[in-house]
Design goal:
Number of helices: 0
Order of helices and strands: EEEEEEEEE
Low-confidence stretches: 102-108
Oligomer: single chain
Shape: globular
Structural class: mainly beta
Distance between the termini: 17 Å
Largest sheet: 7 strands, antiparallel
Strand order of the largest sheet: 3-4-5-9-8-6-7
Number of domains: 1
Mean pLDDT: 75
Length: 108
Amino acid sequence: MRAPRPLTILCPTCKTGRLALESATESEIDCSFCSASFPVIDGVIDVGNALSALGYDDDVYLSNVDGTLADATGTVDKLIGNVVPGFGATTPDKLLAVRQQPIPDIVN
């Protein structure tokens, strides 16, 4: 049995690089292309405006084709978490809460 690979999603900043979440204890993840940094706290990731079109508590799926995040399944997209509020200002930000289960090995 192969060791699971880290969760890998397309960078919401440059749309070219990848963000790889190696473990739930990381404090941030960085883009492999543009070096944009995204904070991680207890499995919750602030991915900027990537979730702005979604509602709070919406499920978030990861595409196996391009590593993008979506609010609905495609042909083989995998549920990876849901949208949660993060209060740092008057209105809450939309953050990605990664599910506490093994991450599917679907993106290269």
